[in-house]
Design goal:
This protein has helices at residues 3-9, 13-17, 39-45, 184-190, 206-211, 225-245, 255-260, 281-292, 356-359, 474-492, and strands spanning 65-70, 73-74, 79-86, 91-98, 106-115, 139-142, 150-157, 163-170, 178-182, 216-218, 250-254, 269-274, 278-279, 296-301, 307-308, 310-316, 319-325, 362-368, 374-378, 396-401, 404-407, 419-426, 436-445, 450-454. The radius of gyration is 22 Å and the shape is globular. Helix 1 runs antiparallel to helix 10. The longest helix has 21 residues, at 225-245. The chain has 10 helices and 24 strands. The protein has 494 residues and is of the alpha/beta class. The protein has a 9-stranded mixed β-sheet with strand order 11-9-12-14-24-23-22-19-20, with helices on both faces. Strands 2-8-7-4-5 form a 5-stranded mixed β-sheet, with helices on one face. A 3-stranded antiparallel β-sheet has the order 1-3-6, with no helix packed on it.
């Protein structure tokens, strides 16, 4: 086996410590620091957090205040435009950077109070769509260099203290050790503001709701609290919180940024967060090209790279707003006969590109869990990635796998050398017996030496950090630390 792969297989905690400190971000000169860690993030964690950052976001579902922000990915010098509709103004807008902050979880960066917040006009119809909320601008924030790169939350509050929020990203153009790609297209696919998303629309029966689903969803509309809690704070925030707690040198961007080619390659790995279900063809090409250049890939979710999506745009007061398009039916899609543009599954004609060719695993029939969350079971405890976890073959990490499952599929596309690390059984939706199988896998791509890991299920982050109903599991935390160290070792051996 070539030496690049040998370095991966021989990983221990000491491997990354002894690598030359090429990724230090401190100007103070060489120090004994683990590569991939950031002094700037350590310093950011010393700042006081803001305990009230998620106040009101878990007290039921309240539609008396709602809003969105554009653009949803900004950098220093950009302006974040905020659009709010409320029944009980005036109100406030507070900007929080999400992270660790000694367990508090976020820090307030900027805020404006006493803002007029009148009720705004209705949004345009979702069918044929996309729905756009042509609201007057409520507030604006200029992003300064004092806003560290990261995942942010804008919390909107009315005069009664009722709250809603929307996420956005502050990105950097500098290379980091790890670039984290957050699945904003998937967020919008599930965002059922006004009762419509890519899965359902108006209708008295399930059949009608499915038939009336949207085929295009815009970013110029509010976020439902359920979407925010379920997939942003309930999945991807847990990964961000853990990365920040451990001071990883991580930069953040949206999948739209990844789609348009923003940002340089990371030093060690692209990390794809959570439920990254909707991908465009340019994203697929960029990820494969990174692997071929030796850039490692970590897919820290599940049901990834499932639907081919396209981006179009809508107009809002002269501003172009990205729109996620996915017909999920080639016969309805005007581009349904064109490979790479047809918004059907990657694996289906005319795309004919099964996702396991990159991931190593993929969704199969009956992949939705009826009994989520389920246990992760160690399949190969002798693998070096389990060093220091205390886990052996057959051991379980309880209740950290859900709600969909990927596994090895024998379709001729699985990369050679793919190894199953975790697996778990579950009861598929519509069944009564635990006949489902999920698998997490890793492989080394030769000749580039890139390491590719896929966790095989979107609940992987549930075991990374303690927040609300979630509890960090030290064995899984150590496993992910080992994985990131293996990414460092694989690149350092080139």
């Amino acid at each position: 086996m070539p030496s690049r792969s040998h370095a991966f297989l021989q990983i221990t905690l000491g491997v990354a410590i002894t690598v030359a400190a090429a990724c230090l971000d401190s100007p103070a000169g060489p120090q004994l620091r683990r590569p991939g860690r950031s002094l700037l993030v350590e310093e950011e964690n010393l700042r006081p957090g803001s305990p009230d950052w998620d106040a009101g976001l878990y007290e039921g579902v309240d539609s008396t205040i709602a809003g969105y922000g554009l653009p949803f990915s900004v950098r220093a010098g950009d302006t974040l435009h905020v659009f709010v509709s409320a029944k009980h103004g005036p109100g406030s807008v507070s900007i929080y950077r999400l992270g660790w902050y000694d367990g508090v979880g976020a820090r307030r960066i900027a805020w404006h109070v006493g803002l007029p917040m009148p009720a705004q006009p209705p949004c345009t119809a979702p069918l044929p769509g996309p729905s756009v909320c042509p609201w007057a601008e409520t507030d604006a924030f200029v992003v300064t260099p004092q806003w560290p790169p990261g995942l942010y939350l804008a919390r909107l509050s009315d005069s009664l203290g009722r709250a809603s929020a929307f996420p956005f990203v502050v990105r950097s153009d500098k290379p980091a050790a790890f670039h984290v790609v957050l699945p904003f297209a998937t967020y919008q696919a599930y965002n059922a503001w006004d009762g419509t998303n890519l899965y359902r629309g108006p209708g008295t029966t399930a059949q009608d709701a499915h038939a009336n689903r949207a085929v295009a969803v815009s970013f110029a509309r509010p976020w439902t609290v359920l979407t925010l809690r379920g997939v942003v704070l309930g999945v991807d925030y847990l990964l961000v919180r853990w990365l920040e707690e451990n001071a990883y040198d991580a930069d953040y961007m949206t999948d739209y940024d990844f789609h348009v080619g923003r940002g340089p390659d990371p030093r060690f790995a692209w990390l794809f967060a959570g439920h990254s279900e909707y991908w465009t063809w340019p994203m697929w090409l960029r990820a494969n090209a990174a692997r071929d250049r030796g850039i490692n890939l970590g897919f820290l979710g599940g049901n990834d790279i499932y639907w081919v999506a396209r981006y179009e745009s809508a107009s809002l007061n002269g501003r172009n707003v990205p729109v996620v398009v996915c017909y999920r039916d080639a016969s309805r899609d005007p581009e349904g006969s064109i490979p790479g543009l047809a918004t059907v599954l990657f694996r289906l004609p005319p795309n004919n590109t099964p996702e396991n060719a990159l991931l190593g695993v993929m969704s199969a029939d009956h992949s939705v869990m009826r009994s989520s969350p389920v246990d992760l079971v160690v399949k190969d405890g002798a693998h070096p990635l389990f060093a220091g976890t205390g886990l052996r073959t057959g051991d379980r990490i309880p209740h950290v796998a859900g709600w969909e499952a990927d596994r090895i599929v024998q379709n001729g596309a699985t990369p050679l050398g793919t190894q199953v690390l975790f697996q778990g059984s579950f009861i598929p939706m519509g069944d009564t017996m635990p006949t489902g199988l999920m698998q997490a896998a890793v492989y080394t791509w030769l000749p580039s030496g890139a390491v590719v890991f896929a966790s095989g299920q979107p609940g992987f982050a549930w075991g990374l950090s303690t927040y609300r109903q979630f509890t960090g599991r030290p064995p899984l935390q150590r496993f992910l630390s080992n994985l990131l160290d293996s990414f460092v070792a694989a690149r350092s051996d080139q």
